[in-house]
Amino acid sequence: MRSLPLPLALTARLTPVAVLACAGWAMTSGPTAPSPAAPLPAGRQAPAQSPSASESATAAKAYTGAPAPCSSVPVAIVKSLVPGAKTAGKEIPSTDDKLRRTCSWNALEGYDYRWLDVSFEITASDDAARKEYQQRVGEKSGGGSVPGLGDSAYSVVNLTTEDKQQTREGVVMARVSNALVIVTYNGSDFETKKAPGTDEINKGAIKAAKAAVAALGSGRSG
Is residue 45 predicted with pLDDT exceeding 90? Predict the structure, then answer.
């Protein structure tokens, strides 16, 4: 089998990936508590207090840490989506692996190239995850919702061409409580210069996303 040069876009993906530092979520303390109230008359009880904003955020935080990403997708799925890849995957270094973890698998088997990324991001609350999810979906037009995946999920597939070589990439974003799961799956055929079909890439990305969402259980609080 003769080796073929990779297009610039794919060559760039095979070089070490510089991972952006994920933002920390700081928990600030509330104002100084007021002085104790005067004693109530006998037989009277103080009214129930509403939970503070910090208490509400804590209650909404179902996940406290990201699961191990390279074991989040079963070996059988990795083999089917990325033939020839090392099933152990490669975890991308993170500045805070409790809040953000990513694993990548890629391989060139014959003339067929495939790449799979699975990323977990843990936010401070459901509301923070919801806002981040909505922002990212807004940046990826042309896709659609994925029913039955997490609290909400979105899938989009795009085709790019460089030096007459096509690459088709699918992205699935899912939100589960305060956690985000991001899956990227793409492929090219260097013999025909064509890309895999939209259906193949989309279904593959969704399959990996379902497995990754199921793996979130290991990071649940409580």
Answer: no
111 φ, ψ (degrees, to nearest 5): -105, 0
Per-residue pLDDT reduced to its tens digit, 139-160: 998 999 999 999 999 999 999 9
Dihedral angle computed from the Cα positions of residues 89, 6, 13 and 181, in that order, rounded to the nearest 10 degrees: -60
Q: What is the Rg, in whole angstroms, of the alpha carbon atoms belonging to the chain? A: 22
Query: Residue 29 in contact with residue 57, Cβ under 8 Å?
Result: no
In percent, the amount of the chain with pLDDT more than 70 equals 70
Tokens coding 67: 């699961």
Interatomic CA distance for residues 44 and 41, integer angstroms:
6
Which domains are seen in the chain, by residue range?
Answer: 63-219 (3.40.1000)
CA distance 60 to 85: 38
- What digits encode the pLDDT tens for the residues 122-143? 999 999 999 999 999 999 989 9
How far apart are the C-alpha atoms of 151 and 128, rounded to whole Å? 14
pLDDT tens digits, one per residue of 53-76: 444 444 447 899 999 999 999 999
**Element at 108 (helix H, strand E):** strand 100-109
- pTM, entire model: 0.74
Name the pairing type of β-strands 112-122 and 100-109: antiparallel
Number of residues that this document lists for the chain = 222
Answer yes or no: are the C-beta atoms of 105 and 82 closer than 8 Å: yes
3-state SS string for 138-190: HHCCCCEECCCCCCEEEEEEEEEEECCEEEEEEEEEEEECCEEEEEEEEEEEC
